[in-house]
TrEMBL record:
Subcellular location: Cytoplasm
Domain of life: Bacteria
The species this protein was found in: Streptomyces silvensis
Molecular function terms from GO: glutaminase activity; imidazoleglycerol-phosphate synthase activity; lyase activity
Protein name stated in the entry: Imidazole glycerol phosphate synthase subunit HisH
Keywords on record: Amino-acid biosynthesis, Cytoplasm, Glutamine amidotransferase, Histidine biosynthesis, Hydrolase, Lyase
Length: 222
């Protein structure tokens, strides 16, 4: 009796939904996640998004438009429900920014999902947008950047960022969030690992082999 190939088929790929709410590079995210070994679906279907092993929330464009699109697709409710049950969510670019309390663009303040305190505000730099490859400074115990060279570069495209991190964990049972930083004109938050909620300001799906390894690290935690 042959058992050839059974060891490869015994472990099912993790199911990851890329939330399709009209604001994000969903196809490039799909390709990158598939490359990292996930079973990927692009959808705004509520049940599919709720039941997946992981939910990826992309985002491009303006903060206010992304928030409106997310609400129209019930994405705000999906993210909140998943996190209340400890189910993994990852945000990318503006998909990270909307996880904060508010975004301020052209003097207009828009409420975010308020999973983390803080404001997304314009980058103060000689050249904006911050577009291209940049290094990051990750905590030594980061799971997201595990196995990656500290000098590795990641691909950024943004004009706004979070410049202050104010969330502290008073409960000794809870692990403190792991915050990764980068600098363009001034320091800004480049990534966060906070329980079931992870996010990156840069685009891992456009960051070559390093981005693929980072996504593999996330999928490995699902």
């Amino acid at each position: 009796m042959s058992t050839s190939g059974s060891s490869h088929s015994s472990r099912a790929a993790k199911k990851v939904v890329v939330l399709d709410y009209g604001f994000g590079n969903v196809r490039s995210a799909e390709r990158a996640l598939a490359r990292a070994g996930a079973d990927v679906e692009i959808t705004s279907d509520f049940d599919a998004a709720m039941n997946a092993d992981g939910l990826l929330v992309p985002g491009v464009g303006a903060f206010a438009a992304c928030m409106q699109g997310l609400k129209d697709a019930r994405g705000d409710w999906i993210v909140g429900r998943r996190l209340s049950g400890g189910r993994p969510v990852m945000g990318i670019c503006v998909g990270m920014q909307i996880l904060f309390a508010r975004g301020i663009e052209h003097g207009v303040e828009t409420e975010g999902l308020d999973e983390w305190p803080g404001s997304v505000e314009p980058l103060k730099a000689d050249i904006v947008p911050h577009m291209g490859w940049n290094t990051v400074t990750a905590p030594a115990d980061s799971e997201l950047f595990k196995g990656l060279d500290p000098d590795e570069r990641y691909y950024f495209v943004h004009s706004y960022a979070v410049h202050d991190w104010s969330l502290e964990t008073a409960n000794p049972v809870m692990r403190a969030p792991k915050v990764t930083w980068s600098t363009h004109g001034e320091p800004f938050v480049a990534a966060v690992e906070n329980g079931a909620l992870w996010a990156t300001q840069f685009h891992p799906e456009k960051s070559g082999d390093a981005g693929a390894q980072l996504l593999t690290n996330w999928i490995g935690t699902l």
